[in-house]
């Protein structure tokens, strides 16, 4: 198996090293793992692409490249430049430092990389490690992802529909709970949740020169979500797997809107 990996935390991020270990296990002795990751951290860029300016790409070592762009840029560079003659069988993005459950998924560069791969017709999985009191200060905060990631991906690949009906291809959002590996209770297939009563916001600060700057501020990551949704199951100790598509249509509203314009 030939696997392309990327992330949004940058080429030197510890989560990318974890993902490389997982990918090597999946690829097997005769397989190949190729890395094309951002030269610098790209957290929160979503599915952004560098449409209006070029990006530099540098070979850092055997099968290892850094690109001055977003995760989606890195996937495009991997598919159409680095591996243009030998497309990968699978694209993995992560392992992100912090969860991409609930509304975080909409901002995530990690998911943006997986989404771009799916738009290019390639199976893709985004992986993220939830942080919390039980693992944030651990020697290996990625332990749950490191020890359970390979098996979760194998099961997803085994059940990924071979016939995608010509529409938007599935990709998968996997979040590992904020607990040590031994405390993981299992895996749940979940819908994307939404944290109630919390939003991203800004926090203003004035620089020594008097200029005003705004820091983006995240919401409470332990705010409740609907039972059975991704973040809810993560906080209960379960790995969540959420099948996704890039189709943003609110299908439940199509008929009502058609009636309004009849």
UniProtKB/TrEMBL annotation:
<dbReference type="GO" id="GO:0004309">
    <property type="term" value="F:exopolyphosphatase activity"/>
</dbReference>
<dbReference type="GO" id="GO:0008253">
    <property type="term" value="F:5'-nucleotidase activity"/>
</dbReference>
<feature type="binding site">
    <location>
        <position position="96"/>
    </location>
    <ligand>
        <name>a divalent metal cation</name>
    </ligand>
</feature>
<dbReference type="InterPro" id="IPR002828">
    <property type="entry name" value="SurE-like_Pase/nucleotidase"/>
</dbReference>
<comment type="similarity">
    <text>Belongs to the SurE nucleotidase family.</text>
</comment>
<feature type="binding site">
    <location>
        <position position="43"/>
    </location>
    <ligand>
        <name>a divalent metal cation</name>
    </ligand>
</feature>
<dbReference type="InterPro" id="IPR030048">
    <property type="entry name" value="SurE"/>
</dbReference>
<dbReference type="GO" id="GO:0046872">
    <property type="term" value="F:metal ion binding"/>
</dbReference>
<dbReference type="GO" id="GO:0000166">
    <property type="term" value="F:nucleotide binding"/>
</dbReference>
<dbReference type="InterPro" id="IPR036523">
    <property type="entry name" value="SurE-like_sf"/>
</dbReference>
<keyword id="KW-0547">Nucleotide-binding</keyword>
<feature type="binding site">
    <location>
        <position position="9"/>
    </location>
    <ligand>
        <name>a divalent metal cation</name>
    </ligand>
</feature>
<keyword id="KW-0963">Cytoplasm</keyword>
<protein>
    <recommendedName>
        <fullName>5'-nucleotidase SurE</fullName>
        <ecNumber>3.1.3.5</ecNumber>
    </recommendedName>
</protein>
<dbReference type="Pfam" id="PF01975">
    <property type="entry name" value="SurE"/>
</dbReference>
<comment type="function">
    <text>Nucleotidase that shows phosphatase activity on nucleoside 5'-monophosphates.</text>
</comment>
<dbReference type="GO" id="GO:0005737">
    <property type="term" value="C:cytoplasm"/>
</dbReference>
<feature type="binding site">
    <location>
        <position position="8"/>
    </location>
    <ligand>
        <name>a divalent metal cation</name>
    </ligand>
</feature>
<feature type="domain" description="Survival protein SurE-like phosphatase/nucleotidase">
    <location>
        <begin position="3"/>
        <end position="196"/>
    </location>
</feature>
<keyword id="KW-0378">Hydrolase</keyword>
<dbReference type="GO" id="GO:0008254">
    <property type="term" value="F:3'-nucleotidase activity"/>
</dbReference>
<keyword id="KW-0479">Metal-binding</keyword>
């Amino acid at each position: 198996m030939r696997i392309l990996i990327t992330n949004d935390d940058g080429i030197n991020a510890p989560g990318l090293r974890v993902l490389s270990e997982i990918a090597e296990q999946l690829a097997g002795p005769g397989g190949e793992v190729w890395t094309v990751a951002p030269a610098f951290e790209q957290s929160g860029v979503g599915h952004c692409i560098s449409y209006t300016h070029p990006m530099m790409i540098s070979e850092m070592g055997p099968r290892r490249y850094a690109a001055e762009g977003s995760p989606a840029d890195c996937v495009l560079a991997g598919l159409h430049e680095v591996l243009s003659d030998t497309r990968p069988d699978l694209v993995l993005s992560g392992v992100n430092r912090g969860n991409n459950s609930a509304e975080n998924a909409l901002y995530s560069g990690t998911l943006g990389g997986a989404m771009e791969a799916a738009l290019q017709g390639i199976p893709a999985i985004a992986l993220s490690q939830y942080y919390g009191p039980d693992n944030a200060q651990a020697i290996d905060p990625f332990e749950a992802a490191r020890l359970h990631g390979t098996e979760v991906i194998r099961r997803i690949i085994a059940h990924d529909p071979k016939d995608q009906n010509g529409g938007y291809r599935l990709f998968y959002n996997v979040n590992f709970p904020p607990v040590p590996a031994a405390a993981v209770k299992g895996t749940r297939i979940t819908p994307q949740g939404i944290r109630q009563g919390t939003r991203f916001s800004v926090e203003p600060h004035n620089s020594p020169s008097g200029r005003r700057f705004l820091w983006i501020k995240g919401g409470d990551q332990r705010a409740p979500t609907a039972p059975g949704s991704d973040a809810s199951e993560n906080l209960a100790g379960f790995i969540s797997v959420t099948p996704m598509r890039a189709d943003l249509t609110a299908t439940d509203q199509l008929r009502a809107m058609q009636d309004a314009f009849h």
